[in-house]
């Protein structure tokens, strides 16, 4: 870390001051001489500091120049490293292209060899086919002579090819009729099988519907029984509800009568709503409790009255 100039000069001044001055006894030195010595010491220290400053500046300039040279060498090394990496990449690219070209040439050679083998096999197959056709031609030569004789007897045909075409047409028609017959027979068999499946499915469906009808009848009967049961329950509930309602009305009337009697006994008007049955019963309860307390007090006071 860099040291500030003031701190550097202060440290250097402390090193340059003679230690003997610190050891002298200031009582035996005249003040003026002591001041001159101090000034001389300051001048010497300033010269030393100036010399060290020049040396420091020289060293600093040398270091700066050395640092610039190092930075320049570093840049040169970086550029050389970049050029070397570029050279390596180009060499790798050339090597890859050469390997790829060699692989493509090998593949092309293999393809050409395979194509040559295929063509050789095809040539052999064509030669065998040519020999087979020649043998067939030899076998069909009597047929050709026979067709020539038939052509002479059928004036409506001018060429053997027309006769052969007519025969091929008749053969194709016969084959088409056979195919149509087979298709129709197949369709007939499929129709019969489909009809049988429909019959079986219809019988199964009838059986299933009969079973389903029986189940629905059983469910209907059970529903009717449940309906009758719940209707009787509903009538019973309605009767019970009517009885409970009547009992509730009587209870509320009794509570209202008791509450009115209590109010008449206490000589105060009723201060509760007619529908507030709970409040009325609470007031009657409080009145009964107060009356019970008064009766208990009277019972306790009766024995003490004769004694007096």
UniProtKB/TrEMBL annotation:
Top-level taxon in the UniProt lineage: Eukaryota
Coiled coil as UniProt keyword: yes
Keyword Zinc on entry: no
Residue span(s) of domain DUF4200: 35-152
InterPro entries: CFAP_domain-containing, DUF4200
Coiled-coil zones: 60-143, 185-226
Pfam family for this entry, one: DUF4200
UniProt keywords, alphabetically: Cell projection, Cilium, Coiled coil, Flagellum
Name under which the protein is recorded: Cilia- and flagella-associated protein 73 isoform X1
């Amino acid at each position: 870390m860099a040291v500030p100039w003031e701190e550097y000069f202060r440290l250097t001044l402390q090193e340059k001051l003679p230690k003997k001055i610190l050891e002298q006894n200031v009582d035996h030195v005249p003040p003026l001489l002591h001041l001159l010595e101090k000034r001389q010491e300051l001048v010497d220290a300033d010269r030393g500091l100036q010399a060290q400053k020049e040396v420091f500046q020289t060293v600093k300039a040398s270091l700066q120049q050395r640092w610039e040279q190092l930075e320049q060498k570093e840049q040169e090394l970086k550029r050389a490293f970049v050029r070397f990496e570029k050279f390596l990449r180009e060499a790798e690219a050339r090597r890859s292209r050469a390997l790829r070209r060699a692989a493509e040439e090998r593949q092309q050679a293999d393809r050409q060899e395979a194509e040559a083998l295929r063509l050789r096999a095809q040539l052999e197959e064509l030669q065998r086919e040519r020999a087979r056709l020649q043998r067939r031609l030899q076998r069909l030569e009597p047929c050709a002579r026979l067709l020539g004789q038939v052509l002479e007897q059928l004036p409506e045909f001018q060429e053997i090819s027309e006769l052969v075409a007519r025969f091929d047409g008749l053969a194709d028609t016969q084959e088409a009729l056979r195919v149509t017959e087979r298709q129709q027979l197949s369709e007939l068999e499929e129709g019969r099988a489909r009809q049988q499946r429909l019959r079986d499915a219809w019988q199964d469906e009838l059986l299933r519907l009969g079973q389903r009808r029986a189940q629905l009848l059983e469910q209907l009967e059970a529903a009717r029984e449940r309906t009758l049961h719940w209707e009787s329950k509903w009538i019973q509930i309605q009767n019970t509800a009517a009885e409970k309602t009547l009992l509730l009305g009587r209870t509320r009337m009794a509570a209202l009568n008791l509450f009115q009697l209590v109010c008449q006994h206490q000589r105060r008007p009723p201060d509760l709503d007619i529908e507030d049955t709970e409040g009325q019963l609470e007031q009657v309860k409080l009145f009964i409790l107060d009356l019970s307390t008064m009766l208990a007090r009277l019972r306790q006071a009766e024995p003490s009255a004769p004694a007096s």
